[in-house]
């Protein structure tokens, strides 16, 4: 967790560089669609370090749910630390050492072993079984995906379907589906010619007029 003085592309990649140098250059970086993350400066940074940049769907924060959840957790930890006059870094250390649903903590996944904190601990396991852990996490993830598909199955839109777009408060503007970008996001064309990318949950098919 690092503090940003300004929400600019330059400030973001200045903070990311030391992290990349300390651990490694990632193959993929996933972010939201903030202007500082899709501008020319960040594109140049991506090309310089050679990683793939994937953005979440516009107007659909759930598509970046893991990061959104992590940000909320960190903010809550920082607020509590400030309120009780404690060192925020201790709270963050304990958070990184807390086991996830797969049985290993974020630090254990990163370093291949448990880390020592100021909290009482059982004898530290020096190494975890990567294959066993990944298989367990993958099984839980697949089960979650299956449940989501059962509970929230969306009707597939077709090319040239007329739709309305959800704009946070109401359905508005008649648009036409141009193409399916991947599993759920669609590229649609507004009446004025503007092209947008939206998740299927934010598109309402308009019935054909007879």
UniProtKB/TrEMBL annotation:
Domain Integrase catalytic span(s) in chain numbering: 1-128
GO biological processes: DNA integration
Top-level lineage group: Eukaryota
PANTHER family referenced in this protein's UniProt entry, alphabetically: PROTEIN CBG26694, PROTEIN NYNRIN-LIKE
GO molecular function, one term: nucleic acid binding
The organism's taxonomic lineage, starting at the top: Eukaryota, Metazoa, Chordata, Craniata, Vertebrata
Organism the protein comes from: Latimeria chalumnae
SUPFAM superfamilies, per the entry: Ribonuclease H-like
Protein name per Swiss-Prot or TrEMBL: Integrase catalytic domain-containing protein
InterPro entries in UniProt: Integrase_cat-core (IPR001584), Retrovirus_Pol_polyprotein (IPR050951), RNaseH-like_sf (IPR012337), RNaseH_sf (IPR036397)
């Amino acid at each position: 967790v690092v503090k940003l003085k300004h929400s600019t592309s330059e400030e973001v990649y200045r903070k990311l560089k030391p992290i990349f140098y300390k651990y490694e250059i990632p193959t993929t970086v996933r972010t939201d669609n903030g202007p500082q993350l899709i501008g020319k400066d960040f594109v140049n940074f991506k090309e310089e370090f050679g990683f793939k940049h994937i953005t979440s769907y516009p107007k659909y924060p759930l598509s970046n749910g893991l990061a959104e959840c992590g940000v909320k957790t960190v903010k809550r930890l920082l607020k509590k630390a400030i309120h009780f006059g404690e060192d925020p870094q201790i709270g963050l250390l304990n958070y990184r050492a807390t086991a996830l649903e797969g049985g290993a903590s974020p630090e254990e996944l990163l370093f291949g072993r448990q880390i020592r904190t100021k909290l009482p601990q059982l004898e530290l396991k020096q190494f975890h079984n990567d294959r066993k852990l990944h298989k367990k996490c993958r099984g839980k993830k697949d089960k979650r995906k299956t449940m989501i598909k059962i509970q929230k199955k969306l009707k597939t839109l077709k090319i040239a379907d007329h739709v309305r777009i959800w704009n946070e408060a109401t359905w508005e503007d008649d648009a036409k589906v141009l193409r399916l970008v991947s599993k759920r996001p669609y590229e649609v064309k507004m009446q004025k010619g503007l092209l947008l990318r939206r998740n299927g949950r934010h598109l309402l098919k308009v019935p054909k007029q007879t």
